[in-house]
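Example 3.2
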Amino acid sequence: MIVNRHELERFHGTKSSKLVLSTLSAAVDSVRPDSLIKRAVKFSNNELTARDIYGNVARLAEFEHVYIVGAGKAASGMAFAMCSILDDKVAAGAITVPYGIKSKTNLKRVLVTEASHPIPDNAGIEGTKKILSVLEKASENDLVVFLISGGGSALMPMPASDICLADKQKITASLLRSGASIHEINAVRKHLSAVKGGQLLRHVNRSCTLLSLILSDVIGDDLGIIASGPTYPDSSTFSDALNILRKYRIKRPVAAIEYLRKGARGKIHETPKPQEEVFSRIHNMLIGNNAVACKAAEDYLKKHGMQAVNLGSEFNGEAKEFGLFLARLTLDLGCKRLAIVAGGETTVRLGKSKSGLGGRNQEAALTCLAEVNRDDVVIACMGTDGIDGNSDAAGAIVSSQTRLLAKKMDLKKYLNRHNSYHAFKKLNSLIFTGFTGTNVNDIAIVCVDPK
């Protein structure tokens, strides 16, 4: 999974660094979409049984055909697994995935569209049109399966009336740069869309059986936030979206802001709310999240002789602050053979200054490097999707070798310019995976081994 693993192991050279890299691989393997689908979904005697991570079960039977649609970084693996389970029951399907994944995908009767992430493009709109075309085919005795995962917001764009793609691109870029949370970003996206925030269900025959299988990439696993909740009730409003833009002083594009104002005045229909009838027909099932990956990491470390502590999957805020938190942990760990696992997703507030390459995981790791002065500590931060920020790296690892080389570098200069990628490139400490085909936020590991 880590394509430069051998190079990293040779350079860093310690058992701890090898263990940390193996643990990251085990964490990502635990949330492979095909494995999660096969664990959650069974099909026998024309009955489909779906089980979520909480143990809730949906039993669906007596349907003639199955239609599969979806979007996200994990959509390819999820669709492949569903097709292998349902085989000839699948009548048609359409999914949208990030550029670079289609060549790896061979799906019968399911159209695969590649599109842009995190800024939507025209290919994404074409992919959404294909999804809507498939939904139109489903009739009373059919089952529609939605495959939802992180990245779906950008990969399934369908601007609302009076809004053009360029407007959505500008709004999305501004929000990403502002440091807004994913909850805030998606509240705005929902109200500029014709499919997000539960609106995708408005395009489905009201008599169909509906199942949504969801892989979470948001802290707290709010199903209304994952991929902007295309099959889930929306609790936000047009007024909320406007307030978010005001908070981050985003005043353009004018057409998009005027559209939100019209909605706030009641001149445009709100997104579907929890009490609406359409949601009585759908089973929204969460089948994987960051907690699954963190538990797998904890188990792997314990299996290999480490005392391991899992701090959970709720870490957010600024990447630099998270890096400082991890660094401070090392001051209190003493000299025990101990590992810490922490999951979540932080942000990088770029501001208006020109920034370099990197992402939240590399920035957190670089902060650790600047603060930690222990040769018995290895720290790694990585995005489970394999792409960290605006770089092609998944994250970075910090070891005694990294610290040795870093003594000749001005790390604060790299941090101030958000240029963590180039810092770690010089330090031979970038982690590369390419697209992993899954996405459940980020994972950090702190490993203390005095040997």
